[in-house]
């Protein structure tokens, strides 16, 4: 009898330990390893269809550029499609397309990423091509000059010819003085014009190395299948000494900052505000609270901004709050709103400030917390159905400082956020009265005034040359 009683007690203790330690289910069941040359390898298995997304994320972006040489990271991203020792200029994307796949690349402040989506049987081929341009790009003078025109045209089309985009760039510059996040990712036009082969090659040699990269493969593959391929193909690329990031700090900003733009292409006034807030890398707890707060305030017709500002008060036709926490340094929190007819931007701003004041002083309800958490956790369930989506999530979060567990157990971390934490981050970072303590920048967009309309000539539409 004592033996049976002891056995029952042991089982109960085991179950209690198991439930507390292993109750949380992983979302993706990813596997990871690191090659001898420092390349981190991540596999996210999904065997629904015989397709994979293959991504290489480099821990380098626009924030790592030398002052006065903006645009290098993005320019170099373009140049990696312009040939290597073993792949002729322009042939990379053609080869992927011939395999029935698609490819692309993108640059951020913190990273540069390249990816291909192909059927599983062609994985080794795209791995070989990607590993080749990790060390063997050509950077021919004629290609640099032709691609410079493409990059300049891209900046003109996306930024210079779009007053809202150009204005948003100016807001970011005001928000991040003395910090590389204040410089546009694509670069300043006059600095793009001066980039040469020497600075591009130096940047490439300094940062493009396996020990400064993460390989993420999502889809119909296992680590048992991928690891030998990764060791054979990427393992042959030697590691390099990579610089330590050392970015300057944003100084205190005691004054309230506001920018205003009148432009003939703006048809409707709009209010914009950007806050500087912690990223997930800087504060996991604050970032998770901001994610819940964002969903409570701005996740559909039943949430605060739309219900209060659009439906009840009728001061806006649209209002949104958005937070993106995947940065190495500070992140941004945006508020954007369009006034209803007869409402001035000043009146709209006052209504938004009142919403923030209520959030700070009264907090949020149990119902709002429950609904926001449910919506957020539903997103993680749907994410498993995608092939490319999980690769994007893992790459972006890992390259900016998160761990595998941060990703796999994100729904449980969201569940742990309390009402008090949501109210606390709102009070510490979003109080419009404390602009000197937590700086933000206001932006006011207006249609052109009568005198502007008379002196401004419309610009002819321009097209962006196709790349790759």
Would you give an account of this structure?
The chain has 468 residues and is an alpha+beta fold. The protein contains 18 helices and eleven strands. Strands 1-2-6-3-5-4 form a six-stranded mixed sheet, with helices on both faces. The chain has a five-stranded mixed sheet with strand order 7-11-8-10-9, with helices on both faces. α10 (284-297) packs across α13, α10 packs across α17 and α12 crosses α17 (419-429). It is globular. It starts with a helix and ends in a 13-residue tail after the last helix. Mean pLDDT is 90; it is low at 1-23 and 453-468.
In short:
With 468 residues, the protein is of the alpha+beta class. The protein is 44% helix and 17% strand. The protein has helices at residues 2-22, 72-79, 91-98, 123-132, 141-160, 163-175, 189-192, 197-207, 223-233, 284-297, 304-312, 345-362, 366-383, 388-399, 404-408, 410-415, 419-429, 450-455, and strands at 31-34, 40-45, 51-58, 102-107, 112-119, 213-219, 257-263, 270-277, 316-324, 331-339, 440-447.
